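Appendix C. Worked example: Amidohydrolase-related domain-containing protein
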Amino acid sequence: MFFSQIKNSKVFLSHDISFLSHDISFLSHDNSFLLHDISFLSHDNSFLLHDISFLSHDISFLSNDISFLSHDTSFLSRDIGFLSHDISFLSHDTSFLSRDISFLSHDISFLSRDISFLSHDTSFLSRDISFLSHDTSFLSLQSENMDEANPPRKRTMSSRILIKGGKVVNDDCTQEADVYIENGLIQQVGKELMIPGGAKVIDASGKLVLPGGIDTSVHLEQTFMNAAIQEDFYSGTKAALMGGTTMVMALVLPEQHCSLVDAFEKCKELADAKTCCDYSLTVGVTWWGPKVQTVGVTWWGPKVQTVGVVGAQGTDCGGDMVGAQGTDCGGDMVGAQGTDCGGDMVGAQGTDCGGDMVGAQGTDCGGDMVGAQGTDCGGDMVGAQGTDCGGDMVGAQGTDCGGPRYRLWG
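Step 2, the predicted output written as structure tokens:
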């Protein structure tokens, strides 16, 4: 039995050895597989090292890219800063440009206004010249003898003034020029003037230099038909100078039965004592009588003597009329132009008149003629220009007249 157990044990041992051999074989195979796995792992590790190396390079490149990106961002920030400054400067430039455009708009507006004022001034100047022409033709009697006895006031101003760089506006042209004034009188007008030293220089750049205005009809310090004018020659001429008017033409209206010469002398005495600028006097014929005839007025209709109408323009008058223009008058008429008058006529142009005529031009007149130009007249003549007249003459210019002569005095 013991041997039997030993035999069984040997069998079991043989089986175990066999199993052990198998296990060793399997272990050998496992070891071989393990070696293969280790070999593969070694290869994987090598690949991993390569991958890590490549990753390290990629990280290095990425760092460089980030560094470059940082620099680019810095440059971009700087460019944005410069752009911001440029936009700021552009904004300022736009603001200045808007302001300049606004100033230019204002300058254009002021220029348009100045042109408008100049147009109005030219219109008023033309009107004043027209009124001056009418007033001169309307029986303006002022004695040359008085002119000689009482010469115009002499200027006492001794300063020298140069108005430089302005635009001189005159009746004949407009030009950029300088104006030199000495002793109150204009001596030179032009560019690059040769003037003495010590002159006061007035810069007129961008401005208009205009001649002084002439007010052709003013009423100062006057009493007529119980009405009095409070403004005297001082206040009136001072106000005129403040407005750029440097000469006034004052109307003298004598009271009834007052001598025209006495009225003129009285008014001249007041004017000489008070006026601040140049002036002239124009005497109106307000009544008719021997005293009027003695100063050279040669004609006056009977109805005019009674009614006593005196004016620059008169129309539709029932009585006789004295004026620059008169039409449709039932009686005698004194004026620059007269037509369709039933009675005698005094005018600038008269033709085919049945009665006597006083005018600037007279032809085919049966009676005497008084006018600015008279030729081949059988009677006396009163006018601005008279030649070869047999009688007396009253006018602005008179030549070859046998009698007394009167002209405008200023």
